[in-house]
Design brief:
This protein is an alpha+beta fold. It has a domain of about 110 residues: Uncharacterised protein PF07273 family, DUF1439 (Bactericidal permeability-increasing protein, domain 1), CATH 3.15.10.40. It contains four helices and ten strands, in the order αβαβββββααββββ. Strands 2-3-4-5-6-7 form a six-stranded antiparallel sheet. Strands 1-10-9-8 form a four-stranded antiparallel sheet. A hairpin with a 3-residue loop joins strand 9 and strand 10. The longest helix is centred in the N-terminal third of the chain and has 20 residues. The radius of gyration is 25 Å and the shape is elongated. The N terminus is likely disordered.
Amino acid sequence: MSLHRLRSAFLLFVLLGLGACASLPGPHDVVVPLERLQSAAERKFPLNQRPMDLIDIRLSNPRLALHPEDNRISVTLDARVAPAFTRRVWEGNFVLSGVLQLDAQRRAVVVVQPRIDHILLDGIDPAMARQVAQASGALAGTILQDMPLVSFAAEDLRYGGSTFVPTSITTQAAALVVTFAPVK
């Protein structure tokens, strides 16, 4: 075999090897728009709660917002509150929020560390507002704790003979970006 043919064969071998390496799957990002998250949240409401059998709370019309600065998601809900001990009904808003986290077992983005950020009810006096806040304190946990915002089916995590797992979340103002990496 001539030196020219040997060099050509070696160059072809190197190029084929590089081409094979280029086809290996690596990490990739999936963008989940806020509209998709909003649509998923809307399916979970309206929701009726009766914390400690003291007040009836009806929550509806969820409006989500992403907060990239602290990796949180918030939901503003229309609220209708009726204490069991009066005929009075207050309407207004509850704002709940939580931290976004990956749940590898469920292949999902979930909400953890939920809290009530704000309660605003029309016509309620401050003393009653404190009582409503105390009675509904566990409400954020009931509604948001471990709530899957988006789930990925097992078949969605296979591509080109490789299996992928979610490895990180980046929160943007209008979307979540979930990074997937191949299982090694």
